[in-house]
Predict the structure.
Amino acid sequence: MTRPAFLLLTVVACLLGTAIASSCGCGLDMPLALGSTVVAAMAHALGNVINDQHDARNGADAANTQGVFPFTGGSRLIQNGTVTEQHTADLAKALFVLLIPAGLLIAVQAGPGILLLGAAGLLLAWAYSAPPLQLMSRGMGEFAVALAWFGVVVGADYVQRRHFFLIPASAGLGFALMVAALLVINGVPDAKADASVGKRTLVVRLGTRGATMMYGALVLAAHAWLAISVWLLIPPIPALWGLVSLPLSLTAWVLLIRHADQPQRLKPALALTVAATLTHGLGMAWGFAHMSMLR
């Protein structure tokens, strides 16, 4: 129900934020870095469980016969009869109860700013799927999720640095754009089912062609921003290692253009997009980490 494979996105975002702080000479509190990564992954898991619960209630997952598992269509555990909606709701409550003291413990050590980021993250995790906001059904879900992962990068840096800083915000923006692109392409196979239950995602609103162009714009913007930000002397030159993801993103975009109307042929494009997002974050993290090793 927590979709553990996708929690790697959060782990990479935390790794990136931690590497940025370390490269700036802020030191490395490894227990705090590991603890904050676990807490962030728990929050991500909570968002996934809430999403499964509400996509079962609105009928989107049940109506989804074109989803490309495991990338789209939810965990399918409710639809396959493995768990019930009540089991899902109970797990969401349990994760929330665990998150509160864990988050407060991190805040005691890192500072009050992490409370602001944590509260915003939990709000977005709930508002993405749950009524009355249901941002995923209003064409704003992709941007809400991008904002959440922007906060993860900034937060991972904050727990080491103890204050907000421009460089993690710059790196986090590029990573957030990649996450938004991932949400867009994931929405393409689900679009027919989503539309049938009134779930007006960004892909449903834009249509297949518009979503394809949006995907391309997001991945190009992410890589362009990294290059421009280095030119502006915000992150250092080693951050350009994040550009290694560009060939993966472009290949995925070409496959999306070719097969956007054939959802079952999109699995390679979906896998490449996940790989590109992780590689973008890991590439930047490696660049910052290498700087730390040279200090």
Q: What stands out?
A: The CA atoms of residues 1 and 27 lie 36 Å apart. Residues 166-196 form the longest helix (31 residues). The mean pLDDT is 92.
